[in-house]
Write a structure and sequence with these properties.
Structural class: alpha+beta
CATH superfamily: Gcn5-related N-acetyltransferase (GNAT)
Order of helices and strands: EEHHEEEHEHEE
Oligomer: single chain
Radius of gyration: 16 Å
Number of strands: 8
Number of domains: 1
Shape: globular
Largest sheet: 8 strands, mixed
CATH architecture: 3-Layer(aba) Sandwich
CATH topology: Aminopeptidase
Strand order of the largest sheet: 1-2-3-4-5-6-8-7
Helix content: 10-25%
Distance between the termini: 15 Å
Length: 180
């Protein structure tokens, strides 16, 4: 399955992606400044194991974010912990290539993924949490239509200190269809 946008497309993450820059992103201190990665070495073997674990796993929909202009894989975006029973999933995104920052790629990819979640998977709610200092992710969540729902105090230990996680959510009020 491929989800098409104006400047990019989303395609399922593939084992061959572990041979590209993807594992390096998770070892880059700047890329991982606010997420749970970057504290230990992330290897190509670990990337392949992760990709294998989410492929054909109904609890995950993990996509590579690729640019139309050159097909370059610049990040990953996912629905995680998909619950058919509760019709919800966690939204996660990682733009790994710094050259792709500030160009609206996260927003376009996020809109594609949310549309897929609500109109194909028929989910009712999408949610995410982010480090309290991750202003870019907070801005993206709000721009995607999410609302701030709360804060988990000292929920993440990053860069030698505890930090809050700000929680966001988005409800699909347009449909009461059955999930696939």
């Amino acid at each position: 399955m491929r989800l098409e946008g104006k400047h990019l497309y989303l395609r399922p993450l593939e084992l061959s992606d572990a041979n590209g820059n993807y594992p390096d992103w998770l070892n880059d201190a700047e890329v991982c400044r606010y997420n749970s990665h970057g504290d230990t070495l992330y290897t190509r073997d670990m990337a392949q194991a992760y990709i294998a674990s989410v492929t054909d796993n109904p609890a995950y929909a993990v996509f590579a974010i690729c640019l139309h202009e050159d097909g370059r894989h610049v990040g990953n975006i996912a629905l995680q912990q998909i619950s058919v029973k509760n019709r919800n999933a966690e939204f996660a995104i990682l733009i790994g290539e710094p050259s792709a920052y500030g160009k609206g790629i996260g927003y376009e990819a996020g809109k594609l993924l949310i549309d897929y979640a609500f109109n194909t998977l028929m989910l009712h709610r999408i949610y995410c949490g982010t480090h309290c200092e991750n202003r870019a992710m907070q801005h993206l969540a709000l721009k995607l239509g999410m609302s701030e729902e709360g804060r988990r105090k000292d929920a993440i230990f990053k860069n030698g200190k505890f930090a809050d996680v700000v929680e966001y959510g988005l409800i699909n009020n347009t449909s009461i269809k059955e999930p696939i």
